[in-house]
Design goal:
- With 501 residues, the protein is mostly helical.
- The chain has 22 helices and two strands.
- The protein has a two-stranded antiparallel sheet.
- The longest helix has 32 residues.
- The radius of gyration is 23 Å and the shape is globular.
């Protein structure tokens, strides 16, 4: 499974001269609009509709909560700026996995891949799909919770449908993302407009400085730090565009442009929506609500209040699509480097979509629907996810020192990664202090990948019987999915074949 081994083996895949047939490769079909849709669509899920109360509850006042939303948006923009430089310096799909792998070596890259493949993305997709099912079924069960079996079935249908769309066409998948991102922005725009109307009517009591900073409870630095941590998690998904760099049209221009447009837009929407909420609800009402946007709609929309749960459902449907699209490219990138089975690095001969990677992504998410303590798993690995954000940004500084003359279409001041790392260290230290057991379990899950790496990647001279078995499975998977290695890998394989000869 080593990278070199994977490249050498590619020589055996094509049966005919590559010069005599069209090259099969990932197509550059993601323009600037779709790139913005991926970033915005992955960040804005159900959180801003359902539960912004975590930030308010821990910050202690409305005014400080709004400051936290702005601060975390600024820090997210700084992190995205650092990722933009890395994305055009190392123009590979796979995002932070590819950057960590190239800068710190195979083991570090594999551990990032391991924790993402094993827990992070399957659990996130399952939870978002369940949230979609819950809000899609809510109008049918107005006085009670929908049955668990119905929720699980609809969530599974959502995952299967979107996987089929992603397998069929990159263009279809990006169009779905564009449509549903537009839909969720329109829904949030409705909330913001109603907030403006409320302010014009004089309903801004909790926005006046003397009331906005009135403490709902005594200020506590530990709880404020927790509010910042929760605010940061609300921006999760800001790095997903880096997973599909190779499919971006003109990535050197569109990757940074999409980031510069999307992150400020999301920050504006988050802050404006929270302002709108407090124009219709007191902080106490907001804290008591399990779905803030739904309560907001019931207060101001009257008979049209059903728009809010439908908006949450549409938002999460688009979120599942974006997560499937980007995380499957992480599987693809890992397989191409030899860190996952080689079949996952193959794409359909006609559609040019990574079908095996998409199917494994879907299957792992479906399995997570069967796990009863799925939210506990997310808590365990949330710390590790943020850990690798910092490792990746630290890699930017290491790369500057190690290879100062490498071509960088974008070169940001090193002050920005330094600011991000200070903030990152603050969050990690606070997380370790407040939840040491959860963080240690997350570290243990990550380190469980070390023996897997030693067996699957580092140990190259495996028994012939094992290699033959894996080759037969790969060949079977190729026939079932009608997939081959991308053209660039095929060329590498032929070069290796000539060298070996």
């Amino acid at each position: 499974m080593s990278s070199g081994g994977a490249r050498r083996r590619t020589a055996s895949v094509p049966d005919s001269d590559p010069d005599s047939e069209p090259v099969v490769t990932l197509k550059k079909e993601i323009g600037l609009l779709s790139a913005c849709g991926i970033v915005v669509g992955n960040i804005i899920g159900s959180g801003i509709f359902v539960s912004p109360k975590g930030v308010l509850e821990n910050s202690g006042s409305v005014g400080l909560a709004l400051i936290v939303w702005i601060l975390t948006g600024v820090i997210t923009a700084i992190g995205a700026l650092c990722y933009a430089e890395l994305g055009v310096t190392i123009p590979k799909s796979g995002g932070d996995y590819s950057y960590v792998n190239d800068i710190f070596g195979g083991l570090a890259g594999f551990l990032r891949l391991w924790i993402a493949v094993l827990v992070i993305y399957p659990t996130n997709q399952a939870v978002i799909a369940l949230t979609f099912a819950n809000y899609a079924l809510q109008p049918l069960f107005p006085s009670c919770f929908p049955p668990e079996r119905a929720l699980g079935l609809l969530a599974a249908v959502c995952l299967l449908l979107l996987t089929w769309i992603n397998c069929s066409s990159v263009r279809w998948a990006t169009r779905v993302q564009d449509v549903f991102t537009t839909g969720k922005l329109l829904a949030l725009g409705l909330i913001i407009i109603m907030g403006i109307v409320q302010i014009c009517k004089g309903h801004f009591y909790w926005l006046e400085p003397e009331h906005a900073f009135h403490p709902l409870q005594p200020y506590d630095m530990g709880r404020i730090a927790l509010a910042v941590l929760q605010g940061s998690f609300a921006y999760a998904g800001w790095n997903f565009l880096n997973y599909v760099t190779e499919e971006l049209i003109d990535p050197y221009r569109n990757l940074p442009r999409a980031i510069f447009i999307s992150i400020p837009l999301v920050t504006f929407v988050y802050v404006s929506a929270n302002i709108a909420y407090v124009t219709a609800m007191t902080p106490q009402e907001l804290l008591a609500s399990n779905a803030v946007a739904v309560t907001f709609g019931e207060k101001l929309l009257g008979v049209m209040s059903w728009l809010m749960p439908i908006s949450v459902a549409l938002s999460t449907f688009g979120g599942v699509n974006g997560s499937l699209f980007t995380s499957s490219r992480l599987f693809f990138a890992g397989a191409r480097e030899g860190h996952l089975p080689r079949l996952l690095a193959m794409i359909h001969v006609n559609r040019c979509t990574p079908i095996p990677a998409l199917l494994i992504t879907c299957i792992s998410a479906l399995l997570m629907l069967c796990v009863s303590d799925i939210y506990t798993l997310i808590n365990y690995v949330g710390f590790i996810n943020y850990l690798f954000y910092g490792v990746t940004v630290a890699g930017q500084i290491v790369l500057r020192i190690r290879e100062p003359d490498i071509y960088r279409p974008i070169k940001v001041s090193l002050a920005w990664p330094a600011v991000f790392l200070i903030f990152w260290a603050f969050l990690l230290i606070f997380s370790l202090y407040s939840e040491p057991v959860v963080c240690c379990i997350g570290l243990a899950i990550m380190l469980s990948g070390v023996p897997v790496y030693l067996f699957g990647v580092y140990w190259e001279n495996k028994p012939k019987s094992f290699s033959s078995f894996v080759a037969r499975l790969t060949h079977l998977g190729q026939k079932l999915c009608l997939v081959v290695y991308p053209g660039e890998d095929r060329e590498d394989g032929n070069e290796d074949k000539e060298e070996d000869g």
